[in-house]
Task: structure prediction
Amino acid sequence: MRPELFRVFDISAPAYFILLLTGFLFATAVGAIWARRIGQDPDVVVDLGLATLLSGVIGGRILHVLADGYFWDYVHLCTDPAAVDWKIDRSQCTEAMGRVWDAAKGVCHPNPQTTEDKISLCFSWAKFWAGGLTYYGGFIGASAAALFGF
Result:
């Protein structure tokens, strides 16, 4: 899958998010039509769809942080950003993006003094729009919302 489907006015449309949103809209519309057909309230289906979408994104992000090997990177962003090593090219490690190149190790580090304050760096684990969602975390979160929320 391509990480970016298209760009509009220099704003990228991530493929995973577009497919997630398309699936949500289709499933909610079909569920609401079916509920209306059998004489039930379609608003309940829309509420359930919104609850599962929100819980799925939250669950997908949390499990990505915990299970995919990035947990300590996010902890170090709060405590010592210099301990975080990003294995990217030197050309991608730019000062304008708040990054510092470490020539001795050949890695890039975040630099909270240039673009972001330390609190903003500390909450970077919650930036789901920057990438990093797991399918199984979303499935667990959405299933929990569907079972216990309604």
About this structure: The mean pLDDT is 82. The beta strands are 4-8, 11-14, 99-102, 107-110.
